[in-house]
Write a structure and sequence with these properties.
Elements (H helix, E strand, L loop, with lengths): L4 H24 L10 H6 L1 H12 L6 E5 L2 E5 L9 E8 L8 E7 L3 E5 L7 E10 L2 E10 L1
Length: 145
């Protein structure tokens, strides 16, 4: 049996449609982790984050965040020595929401250490928010573990 050019064109179109349907199926089964569920509301509040970053820029030095011996060491500048500093440390993993880590802290000596999980690896955004003397501060840093 000989296949004429009309059947060949129909075969190409059928394969094309099957390919597109397969891609649509795969795209619908992909998992999407949103940064936040209410991203529009968060954007409206972003001016407060800009103000908090500006307060950090006016300090004598930004807080230092270092990884050493399986711990994340956070040292605040000298302005916070002897004062109560409360806040939250948020390790945001862009690739997997299940790896996010959020810890609250309260210190008066200007430094604290966070024990990191043994299985932590990859790129993280470290988001440090703290309050001292009635003012709120925010600093963000990328870190590869």
């Amino acid at each position: 049996m000989k296949i004429n050019w009309g059947h060949r064109i129909a075969g190409v179109y059928i394969l094309f449609v099957i390919g597109i349907l397969y891609l649509v199926y795969r795209a619908n089964n992909e998992e999407h982790d949103l940064v936040t569920e209410d991203y529009y509301g968060e954007e409206l509040k972003y001016q407060s984050v800009i103000d908090q970053k500006d307060r950090v820029a006016r300090l004598s030095a930004p807080p230092k965040m270092e990884v050493s011996g399986g711990k994340l060491l956070v040292s605040f500048p000298t302005e916070f020595d002897g004062t109560l500093t409360e806040g939250e440390l948020y390790l945001y993993c862009p690739s997997n929401q299940g790896n996010d880590l959020r810890r609250s802290f309260s210190v008066t000596n200007g430094a604290f250490a966070l024990q990191l999980p043994n299985d932590i690896q990859g790129l993280y955004d470290i988001k440090l928010t703290w309050k001292s003397g009635g003012k709120t501060y925010f600093q963000e840093q990328k870190q590869f573990f």
